[in-house]
Design a protein that fits this description.
The complex is a heterodimer. By secondary structure, chain A is an alpha/beta fold. Chain A has helices spanning about 15-20, 40-60, 70-85, 100-110, 130-135, 160-170, 240-255, 255-280, 305-315, 335-340, 345, 360-380, 395, and strands at about 5, 65-70, 90-95, 115-120, 140-145, 170-175, 195-200, 210-215, 280-285, 295-300, 315-320, 320, 350-355, 385, 390. The mean pLDDT of chain A is about 95. In chain B, a hairpin with a 4-residue loop joins strand 1 and strand 2. The chains are: A alpha/beta, B alpha+beta.
Chain lengths: ~400, ~300
């Protein structure tokens, strides 16, 4: 049984061409790019090339705006902490309720340090209210951090417009774009976005490499101080093999941008339409008309996501869920809760995230397997009665909190 | 992904006694929909003998919730109600060859479901005042509510105190930041400030146990594990008890065995459960005999 990997928003396989590009940098090209001799020089040139490859993918004006980091989380932390340190007189942050923990947990921590954090709410489709945002924008705001696309639902936020609004009050704008980079065309030079986070392993580069885009002229305070690497903005010897890998992956992502938005999007739509048609009491979460081309998040009512994933895994299918159990927490996904999805559906959300390696045959197989699994689990559910939900599900089963 | 035992997987993929029990005369619905785990237990009880003739379940929940529901029905069938009530959540976990601590915390509701179903059968109303908070200590499955209540009830002021009273933080120690945060919050309420390095309260000796009783209890635990050790050609002896530290000597095949650390960890866990306090077990190379002779 061939494994079917539909969890590409969690991580992606490293493209074989990327691995090939990286290999020499583990062996003969082992030099430190800071060194004066030819060992280092060649590595330095390779990093320069990678920087330009990333620059092109992001549509950045200058290659010096690309800072290599270790991961998306480091880029996020660097961006927010830099914005706060560079403007000590501003004590407020604006972000959203549905950000990745890399932002939310950091903001909770910053709140304890005395900063005021505003969390923008979303509606039932995961959309922001720009009027609410405008009201919060004052000269007290140091930085606004809003993700480009949500990792669970794929829903886009209007970051380009939000960056303009932030600039109007002199606040910096950061976006966590780890899910968007490589899937949607970017042209940062025409935007007011000051900082943007990239994670290599979301676009077929290896884990352990990320980028912080920093628009020229944006005031900056480094997180890591020490060496002169990355023009002193991120000290630490370069992860040269991974940087080269990310460069290659960026180049390939740019080449397959059209494929991602046509073929992959069509496969995603086929998967989603077929499952919704075959499975009663299931629905798409997020904004289906404005989202990443590879992501489909479907809520299956009255059953729990971890159980669905275990069953899928038995059929060799990998996906992920917003249930509490899959994360070891006591609440289902904060994204689902923010959209007001009831618990009986939020726990049963499954995210299918495709890549350019996903095939029609794989999608057909998933379409065949999923309805069976859902039916089987619903037979065990106290909310389910025969072929449909119990007459009044919430009254049919109202457990004592134990 | 969770590291589920084969037994858990088996009960998840082929659950026993799943579905509605048509002629049930005792039904218990328990769980938390916000946590994502809830269970309906249906019993058919023989009115004269109080024997459980049949038991079925329906579960909204994760793999371990479904597997533990299945296990519970298997365990209680044929038992009288009183016998069935002796089944603890730990028994269910043991029946399934263990569960991850996070799962013990929220997805094993067998005992509560049983109490509810039996109350329903007897025409009583069952309520549970159990309150759950976010899991803080993952080593011992201790949640924030328990920690907070314990700090408040005993005026605790250090992480070490919390570990002594609840075991929380006694394992990998990665939750110490979380425990400090709770301490800060509760101490502010009573008008104090948390200071790192505050003297822990005096040792929380279990209530009503003298030193002699405590040592006897320790010996009883060691006695209970001795047969297993002997089976592998080893043995254990108690060398000394110094406050929270229990010195033992591993002998025979146990001495220097690669599994020694693991064995000791198991014994330490057992001791903590029996003594209801946090202790540390330390192996010594000196046997009690040679110590006595030197003394």
């Amino acid at each position: 049984m061939e494994a079917i990997y539909l969890d590409n928003n969690a991580t992606t396989r490293v493209d074989p061409a990327v691995v090939e590009a990286m290999l020499p940098y583990f062996t003969e090209q082992f030099g430190n790019p800071s060194s004066m001799h030819s060992f280092g020089n060649k590595v330095g040139l390779a990093i320069k090339k990678a920087r330009m490859q990333v620059q092109e993918l992001l549509g950045a004006e200058h290659d010096s705006e690309i800072i290599f980091t270790s991961c998306g989380t480091e880029s996020d932390s660097t961006a927010l902490l830099s914005a706060l340190r560079a403007q000590p007189e501003r004590r407020e942050i604006i972000t959203t309720t549905v950000e990745h923990p890399a932002i939310l947990t950091l903001c909770t921590f910053l709140e304890k340090e005395g900063y005021k954090v505003h969390l923008l709410k979303v509606d039932e489709k995961g959309r922001l209210d720009l009027e609410e945002y405008k009201k919060l924008l004052t000269d007290q705001v140091a930085v606004v951090s809003v993700m480009w696309a949500n990792n669970e639902t794929g829903t886009f936020f209007p970051v380009v417009e939000m960056a303009e609004l932030a600039h109007a009050v002199g606040a910096m704008f950061h976006t966590d774009a780890v899910q968007a980079v490589g899937k949607v065309p970017l042209n940062l030079k025409d935007t007011k976005i000051d900082m943007l986070s990239v994670s290599g392993h979301k676009l077929h580069a290896p884990k352990g490499i990320g980028v912080l885009y920093l628009k020229r002229g944006t005031r900056f305070r480094p997180l890591l101080r020490g060496g002169h690497q990355e023009r002193g903005r991120r000290a630490g010897t370069e992860n040269s093999a991974s940087i080269v890998g990310l460069g290659k992956a960026a180049e390939m992502a740019l080449e397959s941008m059209a494929f991602e938005n046509t073929i992959v999007a069509r496969l995603r739509d086929k998967l989603e339409t077929a499952i919704l048609a075959k499975v009663p009491r299931s629905f798409v979460t997020g904004d289906a008309n404005n989202r990443l081309p590879n992501t489909s998040n479907i809520a299956f009512e009255f059953i729990e996501g971890e159980a669905i994933l275990l069953m899928l895994n038995k059929f060799g299918i990998a996906a992920s869920s917003g249930s509490a159990c899959t994360s070891g927490s006591l609440e289902p996904s904060h994204v689902m809760r923010a959209m007001g999805i009831p618990y009986t559906a939020a726990h049963g959300t499954v995210r299918f995230s495709l890549s350019r390696y996903s095939t029609e045959a794989e999608v057909d197989r998933v379409i065949q397997v999923v309805p069976e699994i859902i039916a089987q689990l619903r037979k065990l559910s106290p909310y389910w009665d025969g072929d449909g939900p119990a007459a009044e599900p919430d009254k049919a089963f109202a457990p004592t909190y134990a | 992904m969770w590291d589920y035992s084969d037994k858990v997987k088996e009960h998840f993929f082929q659950p026993r006694n799943a579905g509605v029990l048509a002629d049930a005369n005792g039904v218990g619905d328990v769980g938390s929909i916000s946590c994502g785990d809830a269970l309906r237990l249906m019993l058919k009880v023989e009115p004269v003998t109080d024997i459980i003739l049949d038991a079925h379940f329906q579960t909204f929940g994760c793999g371990s919730a479904i597997a533990s529901s299945s296990a519970l029905t298997e365990m209680i069938k044929g038992k009288t109600l009183d016998e069935a009530l002796k089944v603890s959540n730990q028994d269910i976990a043991d029946y399934l060859d263990g569960l991850p601590p996070e799962k013990m915390h929220c997805s094993v509701m067998g005992r509560e479901a049983l109490q509810a179903a039996i109350a329903n059968y007897r025409g009583e109303v069952w309520s549970d005042d159990h309150e759950e908070g976010a899991l803080v200590c993952k080593c011992f499955a201790i949640d924030a509510v328990l920690i907070e209540d314990t700090i408040r009830a005993n005026n605790l002021c250090s992480v070490q105190d919390v570990t002594n009273y609840t075991k929380a933080g006694g394992g990998c120690s990665s939750c110490h930041e979380g425990i400090e945060e709770i301490l800060v919050k509760v101490m502010v309420e009573r008008g104090e400030t948390f200071k790192h390095g505050a003297q822990p309260k005096e040792e929380a000796a279990p209530v009503g146990m003298t030193n002699l009783q405590r040592i006897r209890k320790i010996e009883a635990v060691l006695e209970s594990v001795r047969p297993q050790l002997k089976r592998d050609g080893g043995d254990i002896e108690l060398v000394d008890v110094d406050g929270k530290t229990i010195y033992v000597n591993m002998t025979g095949a146990c001495a220097g065995c690669q599994m020694e650390a693991l064995t000791l960890q198991g014994i330490q866990q057992k001791l903590m459960e029996e003594l209801k306090e946090f202790i540390k077990i330390v192996p010594t190379k000196v046997s009690s005999l040679s110590r006595a002779m030197k003394g």
